[in-house]
Amino acid sequence: MNILYISISGNTRAFVERLTAYAEEQHQLDSTNPLIKAKEISENSPFNVETKHFFTFVPTYLEGGNGVDNGDTEILTEVMREYLEYEDNYKQCLGVVGSGNKNFNYQYCLTAKQYSEAFGFPFIADYELRGTVADCQRIYQILKDKSAD
């Protein structure tokens, strides 16, 4: 399974690293369990044409407000949106996983929800901040199931 992600504060990177390690453990227990290949997208990333299916992981960074009538503008993660738009890379995306802080109410995972709407792929899972062990297990199963569809 392939993951493209962007990490601003390091929370998404930490979660994807733990998820990748969990996938390795599951693969060791049963070789039919898929491994995860993760690629971080940043301002310095070269844009490539994606030829294999992948999942996108995005944190939520927005311009203030409440996310309903204001403060729903994506900031800091725009390079991921541009990467998905590049040569229609988004067409290879099987779904988006969002993260954020639940204290922000409606804005929680709003970037992932906006990506789902804009690109037409499903919003498949969420986790808060760096996630938990249970989040790794749950999201790995979701990715595995979606890959098999």
From TrEMBL:
GO terms for molecular function: FMN binding. It comes from the Bacteria. Signal peptide: none annotated. It holds the Pfam family Flavodoxin_NdrI. Gene3D superfamilies: 3.40.50.360. PANTHER family: PROTEIN NRDI. This is Class Ib ribonucleoside-diphosphate reductase assembly flavoprotein NrdI. It comes from Enterococcus pseudoavium. The lineage of its organism: Bacteria, Bacillati, Bacillota, Bacilli, Lactobacillales. The gene is nrdI.
